[in-house]
C-alpha cells in the first residue's frame, strides 16, 4: 500500500524529479481487541481530479466523478497508457482487510468504511483541511484477509457512483 501510494504521488507530481515530495507516517495501535496500523501518505501536488483530467478521456468529469473513477482499473492521467492500477490495488487491499480509508484532495473528502465487505459505507465528506495536494489515511485492521479482485473494486466504485448520483 505504501509503495503504491508513494509511487502514485511521485509519478503524478508536477514538480521536477529532484523536488518531488511524499510524506509518510505509520503507527500501530489497539482498537478494542484488534491490532491496527494507521498509514498516512500525503503530497502537496495538484490533487487527484485535477491530475486525472489532464487525460482528455476524463477532462469533462466533475471533480467528484474524477475522484471516484481514479480508483477503477486502468484509469490514468496518461492518455493511451496501460497504467492506472495502483489506487485499484490499494482499495482492493483495504476492502479485503476490512479497513477504513480516507482520501482528501482539494475541496473533496471521501470516507470509506470497509469493515463490512458486503455493505461498505462510502460517502463524500468535507476535507479535513483546505490545502492543495492529496492526503490518504488508511486504518488496516488485523482480521482475516479476504482477497478482493480489481473487478470487484471496479464494480464497487461503479455502484457507489450510482448510489451517490455523481454526475458529470
Structure report:
- The chain has 168 residues and is α+β, with helices and mostly antiparallel strands.
- Helix content is 29%, strand content 26%.
- It is built from five helices and six strands.
- Strands 1-2-6-3-4-5 form a six-stranded antiparallel beta sheet, covered by helices on one side.
- A hairpin with a 2-residue loop joins strand 3 and strand 4.
- The mean pLDDT is 90.
Q: What profile does the largest beta sheet have?
A: 6 strands, antiparallel
Low-confidence runs of at least 5 consecutive residues: none
The secondary-structure class comes to alpha+beta
Instruction: Round the Cα radius of gyration to an integer and report it.
Output: 15 Å
Distance between the termini: 29 Å
- pLDDT averaged over residues: 90
Name the overall outline. globular
| Helix run count | 5
* Strand ordering within the main sheet: 1-2-6-3-4-5
Topology pattern, helix = H, strand = E? HEEHHHEEEEH
Beta-strand residue percentage: 25-35%
Binned, the helix content reads 25-40%
Kindly state the number of beta strands: 6
Amino acid at each position: 500500500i505504501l509503495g503504491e501510494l508513494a509511487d502514485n504521488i511521485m509519478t503524478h507530481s508536477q514538480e521536477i524529479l529532484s523536488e518531488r515530495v511524499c510524506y509518510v507516517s505509520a503507527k500501530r495501535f489497539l482498537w478494542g481487541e484488534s491490532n491496527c496500523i494507521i498509514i498516512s501518505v500525503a503530497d502537496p501536488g495538484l490533487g487527484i481530479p485535477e491530475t486525472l483530467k489532464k487525460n482528455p478521456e476524463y477532462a469533462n468529469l466533475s471533480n467528484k466523478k474524477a475522484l471516484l473513477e481514479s480508483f477503477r482499473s486502468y484509469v490514468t492521467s496518461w492518455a493511451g497508457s496501460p497504467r492506472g492500477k495502483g489506487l485499484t490495488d490499494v482499495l482492493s487491499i483495504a476492502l479485503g482487510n476490512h479497513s477504513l480509508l480516507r482520501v482528501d484532495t482539494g475541496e473533496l473528502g471521501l470516507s470509506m468504511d470497509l469493515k463490512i465487505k458486503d455493505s461498505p459505507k462510502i460517502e463524500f465528506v468535507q476535507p479535513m483541511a483546505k490545502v492543495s495536494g492529496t492526503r490518504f489515511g488508511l486504518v488496516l485492521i488485523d482480521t482475516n484477509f479476504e482477497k478482493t479482485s480489481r473487478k470487484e473494486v471496479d464494480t464497487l466504485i461503479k455502484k457507489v457512483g450510482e448510489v451517490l448520483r455523481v454526475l458529470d
